[in-house]
Each structure stands twice: as C-alpha cells, then as structure tokens.
Amino acid sequence: MKRGLPSWARSVRVRLLVIALLPMLVLLPLLLGMTVWRWSGKVDDLLTVKVNGDLTIAHQYMARLRENSGDRIEALGASVAFAEGMARPDTGTASDFLERRRRALGFDFLYVVTRSGRIIPSDTPVGADVSARDWPVVRAALDGATRSAVDVFDHEQLAALSPALAERARVPLVPTRAAKPTSRDVVEDGMVLHAAAPVRLPGGQRAALVGGRLLNRNLDFIDTINGLVYRDRSLPEGSQGTATLFLDDVRVSTNVRLFEGERALGTRVSAEVRSQVLERGEVWLDRAFVVNDWYISAYEPIVDSRGERVGMLYVGFLETPFREARIDSLLLIATIFLAIAVLSVPIFLRWARRIFRPLERMNDTIGRVEAGDLGARIGTGGGRGEISRVARHLDDLLDQVQERDRRLRDWASELNDKVAERTRDLQEANRRLERTTEQLVMSEKLAAVGEITAGVAHEINNPVAVIQGNLDVARQTLGARADEVATEFDLIDDQVHRISAIVTKLLQFARPGDFSGSANRLVPAEVIDDCLVLTRHLSSKADVTLKRDDRSTATILVERTELQQVIINLVVNAIHAMPEGGTLTLETEDREAEGMAGVAIIVTDTGRGMAPEVLKRIFDPFFTTKRAQGTGLGLSISQTLVARAGGWIEATSEEGAGSRFTVWIPAFQ
Question: Mean pLDDT over residues 378-403, rounded?
Fold first, then answer.
C-alpha cells in the first residue's frame, strides 16, 4: 500500500512557499553552481595560458643558449688568438690553447676535427672512436656553416671524450608511479648542448671547431631556467615553480624534489605524457602528477640534430594553492548564500502565515466537517481579501449542506423504519413459507411411503405367513428327518424374520406414532452408555478406539428406546465408515439453539467421509451407500424420531477426513 505525503507536505501554504522559494533555494544555487563551474573552467584556462607562457620562456632561453653556444664557437674560430694558438699543433701548444678556451667558455669538451678525421683535442683526452664527423652539426661546419643543436651521446662516446664526463652523465632510475614499464635501471647516455663552427688551420686546411656542454646533472642550467621563468611573486603564496630536462622520459636535470634536500633525478614521466609528447610530438598543457604531487604542467619535445625526439623540456607549478583557493571561494559563496537563506526564509514564512491563515482555517473546517461536525464554521470576520470572501461563501454553503443533511437524515430514518418493518414481515412470511414447504414435501414423502408400506404389508406379510406356516408343516411332516435339513430350515427362518423386520421399519417410518412409547426424562450420557454396550462387539471387531467427553448437565424428555435407536444408528454408521479402524468420539454438551436451551449429542468418526453430493441426500428415504447391507431408512427414521422430540439432526463431512453428526434435543424444563 502506497503511503501518502505527510499532512504538512499537503498544506497549500507549504506548496505555495515552495513555489515562492524555489527560485532562491533551487534555481539560484543552480545558477551559482553553473557560474562557479564556468569560472573554474576559466581559471583552468588561465592557468593553462600561464604555464604555456612559462614554457615559451623556457623554450626561448633554451634556444638562445643553443644559439649562444654556436656564436661563441664561431667567434673563437674566427679570432686571431685561435689562428695563433693553432699555429704549432704538433708541439702541444694547440691543445693547451683549446683547453684554456674550453674552461673560459664553460664547455665540457672542445676539439678541432679536419675533413680527414684528424682530431686536435684540448687537454681532455679524446679517443679514436668519437666519430666526430658523423654528427650533423660537425658535417655542417666542415661544409662551412655554423650550427648548434641538442644531441645525445652514448656512454662510449662520452667515455672517449672524458671518463669523468661519462661518470657525470650516469643517472640511476628511480621507480616512478604511472611511468611506462622498463627493464633499465640506469641511464648512461648524455644530453649535450652541441655546437660546431667552420675554421681554417694554418696552411689553409678547412676544419671544424666543435664544443659541447653536458646537460645531465647540470643543476645551474636548470635552476637558471626556473629562476628566469618563475621570478619572485610570480606565483601565489604556497605554490612552487619547477623546471626539468628529460632524456627520453627520465629526469636528468631538475629542481623537482623527491624529498627534502634530494632532487628527483632518475624519476620518470607518466606513460600518458610520454605517449603524447615523445611518441606523437605534441605539446602537453594540462595538470599532471609530477613525482609526488599534482602540477599545472607544460611539456614539449626536444629534437636533436638528426630530427629525432630525444627528450622533453618541462616547466610547471604546484596546483594545490590554486585548488585550495578555489575551494575557499566555493565555501565563501556557499556560506554567503546560506546566511542569506537563513535570514530571509523566516521573514517569508511569517509573511506567508498571515496571507494563508484564512485558507488554513478553511482546510481545518473542511476536515472537521468530513469528520462529522457539520456545525463547524470558518468565521473569518470582516476580512476583505479574496480568501476571506471565499471563506464566508463556504460558511454559507455549509449552512445549506447542514440543513439538507438534517432533512435527509429525517427522511432516511423514516425510510429505514419502513424498510425494517417490511423486512420483518418478509422474513416472517419467508419462514412460514419454508416451514409450509417442508411440511408439504414431508407430507408428500410420507404419503408416498404410506402407500408403499400399505402395499408391502398387504403383499408381503401374507406370503411370509404362508411360507412360515408351510415351514412349520414341513417340520411336522418330516419329523425326525427334519434334522437333516435343519440348516436350510433355519436359513429360511432367518430370511423370513429379516423380511418381517424390513416391513416393521417401513411401518415405523410411515406411521411412527403407532410404534412410539411414553416419553421419559433422560440423562443423555446414561443412554450412550447403554448403546455402547450393545455395539461393543462391532467396535472391537473393527479395531475402533472410543473416546468420550460428557459435558452436558441438563436432562431431556424423549422415549428411551427411540433415543437408543438414533444413537445406535449413528454409532453403527460410524463404525462401518472405518473398516480399517479409527477413532470414534461421542460428546455431550449443553447448547442453546434459537434461544432455547438444549443438549447436543455429537458423534464424530475418522473414516472415509462423504462427498458433498452424497451429504445432501443422506436423510432421504431409501438412499444408501451400503448397497445390499442397508435399506436407506436408518437416518430418515432417526431424523423423524429426533424431530418428534422437538429437536434436529445435522451432519458435516469432508471426503477422506471423517464425518460429524450432531443431534440436538430441547432440555427438560
């Protein structure tokens, strides 16, 4: 069953208040939410623009640094000092000169390579397998053009330049969340700011002046970028700017902290960023998880002199202060809205209470009228509002309804009295008609049985007398020889006696008054005791268990043999209904019927029971379910005997669950 709304929710005042407050309590928060959401999106866009500008600055600084390296190499190669310093390369003067200039220019290596592959190094040893001429920047210089780029040197190339340089480039990998799985545990390649310029050696031979700066673990380089991009007060308090140089997806130079005092060298970028930047060559402008926190991040790929993506340049700043500022703003807006709602809603409620008070009185009055109080009235006084006029009109309508209800009640009372009187007359007439019909039916049955009985008595008794007489003559005639057929004579005697008994029952049913004796004042339990003695041989033979429950204290006025006949008939029928044994229960109790005290005798068995169509006919004369074992008159005679004593007999039964017969006889007063 569906439950309705609570009474307060069905109030018109509440509903109208909801309609009035809906714009402020629902639509306004919705608009505020959409505004905040749009504002949050704009802030995210501004942060993206900001980090994109930061990346542009870092990119320009990196490009300027690369161009500056090429310019410095070119200026050195064109200087008089270079021509003088390279005048005597075989004596070691050239190497000393290159070493002094390497240190002055801040390069990690500086050497001269000729077209034939001959290398004039600085004091830093250079092996034979440096493969100098294979680099595009070197080939460009040998062809007469200055060029600079970011190139990646493998471990053997770095070791050929300088074992110390190879060791400095080595960065152990640190396991990083969300990074692409790898089997490496260390990075030994080096990212180098690589520059070369064309020069002429003494004697006019063309060569290339090559210099480079290792960026692995170059903290001054990355701190310079970070300081240039994120100056003081360029970020809100609590935020922090970071910059990183990646070799492939590994941080080889960064100011991001793994923990206090330890830079996150060897940590790796997430697989998502790596896919977009390194694999697809796109710029990343979005929030990203960097080592241990979320940053507004910008990544761009670094392309070497061969046109391959070899690393990434990153700048970003901590997202937490912006997120906290956004949450604080949302909380402030929500607090202001709640404060306004708390202050304004009571004012609206008080105002609405005055407006809807007559309407609430109308609702209360209607409820009282529905409960039966037709005298309830609204009584709004002299109010001039629309609701007050409606209330006064409703009072007038209620007056009319009350008057009409009074008239209808009077008419209904008169009509009920007449209907009750007619109903009583009809019921009495119906009862008389039923009794008359029953008497007519019974009279017809008795008349029919009387005719049959007279015919039977006339047609059967005379032949039976002749048979009995001739049987006696046969015995006398045979004399001693009659003993030879004594069994047959006894069988004839029994059958003649049975025919006489059947005729007697027919006569008893047709003219019971001829067989009745004088009525006696009896105790039903005592009569039942006698009947059980007479039927004990049947119950013991059928393995029937007997139960008694005598609760009756009244006496009845009935002829003893007739009551015995009724009880014995019911007991015998019950025993026959339990051929495989069962329980027979006999009870007596005091019971009123139609306002008259009486005694009920109840016989219950656990036998086969009867079907409904059989139960309807058990009191009909000559109806039997025992085939040749009965005449079908036992229950009919019992009903007649009980009715003559002023009582009745009824039966209930369920097929397969036994039967229950109740005999009721008025108590003796």
Answer: 72
56-65 contact pairs (CB < 8 A, 24+): 57/228, 57/229, 57/315, 58/225, 58/228, 58/229, 58/243, 58/313, 58/315, 59/300, 59/313, 61/224, 61/225, 61/228, 61/229, 62/225, 62/313, 65/193, 65/221
- Residue 452 falls inside a structural domain: no
For residue 534, the enclosing domain spans 516-666
In this predicted structure, which of 30-39, 163-172, 217-226 has the lowest mean pLDDT?
A: 30-39
Give pLDDT tens digits for 217-234.
988 888 888 888 888 877
Nearest to 665 by CA among 580, 572, 582, 596: 596
Instruction: Return the CATH number at 616.
Output: 3.30.565.10
* Any domain includes 574: yes
The three-class DSSP label of residue 175 is coil
Count of structural domains, the chain? 2
Q: What is the pLDDT of residues 598-635, one digit of tens each?
A: 999 999 998 888 888 888 888 777 767 765 555 667 78
Burial 311-331 (b: 16+ CB within 10 A, else e): bbbbbbbbbeebeeebeeeee
d(CA 495, CA 488): 11
- Residue 1: inside a domain, yes or no? no
Q: What is the pLDDT of residues 484-530, one digit of tens each?
A: 787 777 778 777 776 776 666 666 555 555 555 556 788 888 888 88
Structure tokens at 268: 């790796």
Q: Average pLDDT for residues 592-601, to the nearest whole number?
A: 89
Task: State how far the alpha carbon of 559 is from the alpha carbons of 43, 118, 563, in Å.
Answer: 114, 155, 6
Beta bridge partner(s), residue 287: 296
Residue 57 counted as domain residue: no
